[in-house]
Amino acid sequence: MRLHRIKYFRLSLQEPEGAVEEITRPDVFDAMFCDERADNAENRAGLERLIRYLQPGDTVVVDSMASLTSSTEQLCSIIRRLIEKQVTLEFSNENLIFRHDCLEVVEPIIAVMELVAQFERTAAREKQAAGIATARNRGSYGGRKKKLSDTQVVSLIDRACAGESRSKLARDFEISRQTLYRYLRAT
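Request: output the structure for the sequence above.
Response:
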């Protein structure tokens, strides 16, 4: 069984130019995998190559949880994938180690992290709902302001029923023909 130490990192916008050479010192790690700054959660080719490369007993070293992912939910998912591959995961900045052979310790930690992720999702939804309610109370939620008032719509419909030209109506009310037809269909 091989025991490789493997470095995974993601370039960040805050890193100075010389930081990559410091991260990629070949004397400490047997292999290194990297994702670019622009790579998002769905497009992480370096991480996927790392997961395919791993074998039981390997150790993956990551600087911080934030460099692995920005979502607690995704973090839990990645940790579980690595533990299933019987790999040890080290986070240097947080001084955390998730060992595949200590599941009685790792599982409760991941369960708590998943609860935190669920809490984050619920809190975000509640905050969004409160923002929408506030916007509705202000009258600024629900799309664009109507171009015509109710009395103008009645006048528009009366003139259209009287046989007036659609183009002339659109010009008179300063609306597009598509908007005119939308008003007429609504009746």
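The mean pLDDT is 85.
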